[in-house]
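User: Can you fold this complex?
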Amino acid sequence: MSNYHLDHLQHLETEAIHVMREVAAEFERPVLLFSGGKDSICLLRLAEKAFRPSDIPMPFLNIETGHEFPELITFRDFRAQELGAKLIVRTVEDAIARGVAVPSPGEISRNKLQTPALLGAIEEFQFDCCIGGARRDEEKARAKERFFSYRDAFGQWDPKNQRPEIWNLYNARVNPGENMRVFPLSNWTEMDVWEYIRKERLAVPTIYFTHERDCFRRGGQWIPVPPPHMDTAKPDPYAGARPKPSEPVRKLFVRVRTIADMISTGMIESPADSVDDIIAEVSAARVTERGSRADDKASEAAMEDRKKAGYF
Amino acid sequence: MPHTQHPIELLRFNTCGSVDDGKSTLIGRLLYDSKSLMEDQVEALERSADLTGGGQINLANLTDGLRAEREQGITIDVAYRYFATPRRKFIVADTPGHVQYTRNMVTGASSANLSIVLVDARLGVIEQTRRHTYLAALLGIPHLIIAINKMDLVEWKQSRFQEIRAEIEAFLPKLGGFRDVKFMPLSALNGDNVVDYSKHTPWYEGPTLLGHLENVHIASDWNLTSFRFPVQWINRPHQPADKTLQGFHGLSGQVASGIVRRGQPVVVLPCGIKTAVKEIWTYDGPLAEAFCPQSVTLRLEHDLEVNRGDMLVGLDGLPGRSTELQAHVCWMHQRSLQPGKKYFLKHTTQTVSAVITEIKSRIDIITYEPEPNPTSLALNDIGVIKIHTSNPLVFDGYGQNRLTGSFILVEQGTNATVAAGMLHPPSEAAKPEYNDFAI
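Assistant: Here's the predicted assembly.
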């Protein structure tokens, strides 16, 4: 019977395709969150496998913090166009202007403000389901997440009161105004994602590979030097995220392992310039992927708190 | 389909036991000793040890991710962990042992290949041991490990191990169903017999826990006998740029059991029309055959009106088709089962309305004996019920097929998932009229 045998990547793939087709069949207005990062790149290939030769039956959505790596934006736009998909972009900047998102005094990271911007977009388009690329192996609070994660009318996650999820029978029912977050990659690990990218020969943004970049040391991480402030009529969007005189700038060969935006992503020093190199590096790695995310380090329950408020 | 030279198998298992049996510690130990932990995770452990653990590393903190769990030192919800060895990748569901959270055990175990039931060597068999073993059997999990933990606290006495083993072996025959059962003497806290053999158990000749997880035979856990294909999504491209795709009518879904080959005759149920598979379409090109649990798109010889929720089946070993069903259910909600009330019933890819017409019995999980005619089933109760559905279900008994024999009940209004159901085998197979197409 060895011919009728799936390896682990094929198992993860068929599980994810099943989940995506459930979304297409059960929801009226689903959307797929596509940032251009490696996890959502896998989501797009899974969507192709789930729905071709038909069109992918949902638009893509990205919430920009305004601090994005330009390489990521270029890649995102290119890939969405290549697939013939509608890409909706909403920004934290706009959410602030409309008063939906309110920055805390002195806080430079826009990470927390993505939550109200996302909830604003969900309301604007009346989305009843958002597919995201989050994985349970990323973080302890995520380890408790369901495939179909129910959010109430405030977009909140209640970890103590999740719907039991049994077999492959997903309860997709929501009332108007409520919302489901669906995570087809729940059971994937960082290694699975890269192995899938290799197997499927998927293109990824160039910042995943080694390149020379100006960085400075902060919070035990190599933080990229933001682009220069050109339009001086406006306030510097990177104020506070620029190196201080006590933080010398160094030119290093670096790459990203996980991408938030430019001010919350630590670069890692690496010579990896191919997917094979990255896989070798991940298998030898001694720290987790999110070890380079400043946004998760705020406290032991940082992710749990953000998720309860409606963060992805 | 491309085959790698040494395919890595995927094993899903769950750990269950009572509070303080050391489930989370055991998973922490597996991760720690199999070197699946990263430096920042170990650092985070050490940080939290200073705060809550009195300086000693608490392996349970690896899996207890929610703040309330760490504060109370308990596991609230199913947590999933991932680790790999060169032979296998593992998905671990750490399922809580509290009585009130039994529903999470069902969540964590429903798709598992293997269950680990932990027993505290000092306490021996308790109510939770019997409940979890029963649930593992009820859910049709093929492989069972009884991990007798905290053996260090009973001086590693073989007699104590044998005593507990005998007590469990006395009731296992009442449950049936397991393909294999292993008993292991462990100390998760100290790592004995988890990844490395213990020097305290010269009398134990079985494998270590990890050794067994790596070697237990799981290739035949998938059902490859009768072909079942619940139609999940109708694949009809609108105005395809590729002219050859005009009129493409595909039925997308996941093979729930068996094997399907190009050209093979199939029956569409519940309507009973017979046709054949013209093409097995995938993004990566057409296939000559597809098997459980692959996700594919089937094209039929005839252009039939087929909907989500319909099922394609092979001609041999037909499933049942009925609106009158009998099933074991595990009740999972604070609001008890209300006979006569309408629920949504989701089975494979279809949702119908359902009324519970009779509660035949509630199972006493201590004696495993049925108590006849209870008035209701409350949270965590297991019982046998009769159901009437608005539309016929095409189904198999859960014992034959975990995917076409299972359902969930959803409360109308709140949309809460209130029960997990395991169907009894049909009293007779569907008798399609074989409306053969006049070709």
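The helical segments of chain A are 8-26, 38-51, 70-82, 92-97, 114-125, 190-199, 275-284, 302-308. The two ends of chain A are 41 Å apart (CA to CA).
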